[in-house]
Design brief:
Blueprint lengths: L1 H4 L6 E7 L6 H12 L8 E5 L5 E7 L4 E7 L16 E4 L1 H8 L24 H18 L1
Amino acid sequence: MHSLDQAQAVRIWLATEKTDMRCGFDRLAERVKTVIGVDPLSGHLFVFRSRRGDRLKILLWDQDGFVLWYKRLETGVFKLPRVEEGQRAVELRASELAMVLDGIDMTQLKRVPRYGRTPEAGRTKIGNRKREEKVNVWKHSAAG
């Protein structure tokens, strides 16, 4: 799923401060600059939550103009991921945004530890070099 989230160069930014939902294109674009600190014309998605938490607006620049997506829940609120104190914006994965929009409580989710390769993980260990050389020599001698 992580590779799917990273498949596109578009990033998703969530403004953690509550936003006045009367804001239109221009005021939200200004909030992108001041709160999130990113160029609103970058093509990234910018997510804003209402004071009550029952509304979301997503702003994005689409080649020749802004697109504004607006969702209001009839009951309940959007459960957003936890953020650190004082953090004004947080980057979301596409899968996380999908969960928020589908009504999944992001505060109840817990990421389990996973294996992650380090840049050195692809290097050959000293103990394996002789074996690799033997395999390569065998392949060359068997082919000839």
